[in-house]
Structures are given as structure tokens and as C-alpha cells.
Amino acid sequence: MRGYHDAPELTAEVIQDGWFHTGDIGQVDADGYLTLTDRKKDLMKTSGGKYVAPQKVEGAIVAAIPFISQAIAVGDGRNYISAILTLDRDNLAKWAAVHGQADRSYEQLTQSDEVRAAVQALIDTANQRLERWETVKKFTILDHEFTVDEGGVTPSMKLRRATITSMYADVVTGMYPREAE
Asked: What CATH code would you report for 43-180?
């Protein structure tokens, strides 16, 4: 890309050292192709100074856990990365049937020790795909999914990270008990 279409003044503002600075983060593969992986403004910086791309963490979680519906990584300015998770009703029902818990409600299952242990084991698997400073140390499973009506999801079903972390500030704070002291 050479610049903004018919906007040389905007292009001049973002060209630095011969590079077009869009605010995107990407990787160039062995064949020279650029793959955009994140937005620079979305990066979290831990209290230890490490930058973490929340989409990478969330992608690892969703890939490793078949009954995860939604995942939000948190940890900006914190000691470690945590996650707020929601579970897919249909896949959780399948899990419950296999594990002899089909008689329990969705809400009961999301808060059960058995489901938490299953999620923890799969979080451990997801963490193997991440750098040490990106790994999820704690997580909270909600008993409901984020919705458009509550404001946590856009009409196109994209999660609103800032809105969710604000709405669930008490949940986030609860995953960092030592920092509150």
C-alpha cells in the first residue's frame, strides 16, 4: 500500500522512516507475505513491562476449549494475564451429557467445580502455545454470555473489550487479590 487514496496529507502524517504506520501489528512470513495480527492500540502492557496481544491469548483459549463461547483477556497494568470466559450452551450440554451431569442447568454447570477443573486443564493446554508472560494465570467463568442488549457485543457480534472490562470491573479485580492489598 502506498498511502491513503487521494489523501497525500494523511499519508505524509503516517509515513515514518519509509514505512506506512497504520497502527496494525503484523508478521512477514518466509515468502514475504504480511499477515496483520493485531492493532497496536489493543496491546496490553503488564506491570512487568511485557506487551501482550489480547487477541492472541483469546485465540489460544478458544482453540483449546471446545465449549468456550467468548473470551476476554485482561491484564493491562497487572502482574499477570487473566481471562473472563463464557461457555457455549450447546457444547456445554454435550459435555454435561458425557460427564453424567445432564440434569444440571447451564448456570449450575458454569459455576461447578467439575467444569472449572475441565476448563483449567484446557487453559493449561492453551498456555503451552503462549509465551510465559502471555499465559493465563486466573480465569472467571460467567453464568451468562455477553450480549448486544447489555452492550458487551456489537451488532456484528464483536466483543467490546473496554465495555466488558468496565462492566465486570469487580470480576477483574477479584482475579488480582494481592494487588488490592
From this structure: 3.30.300.30
